[in-house]
Amino acid sequence: MTTWVEQLQHKAAIVHDQILAAKEMQKQTGVDLSGVIEGFYAKLSEIYSENYPLAHVMDISDIVLHAEGPAASNATPALHAFNWLTTLAEKQLLALATATFQLNDENAKKLVKRIDLRITGLAPGSLYVGFKLQEPVTSGLFSEIEDPVFESIRDAIHRLSDIPNYVGDEKINEGIYEAIPDIAIRDALLTAAMRLAPTGKVGIHTIELFSPTEKRPSTELSQRERVVLREALKRPKLSSPKTGAFVGEIREIDLDVQRFHLRGVRDFGTLRCFFPEKLKENETKGLLGSHVEVLGSYEEDKNGRPRLMSVSEIKEIRSAMQQSLLEVH
Question: Using CB atoms within 10 A of its CB, is residue 248 exposed (0-12), middle (13-18) or buried (19+)?
Answer without folding.
Answer: buried
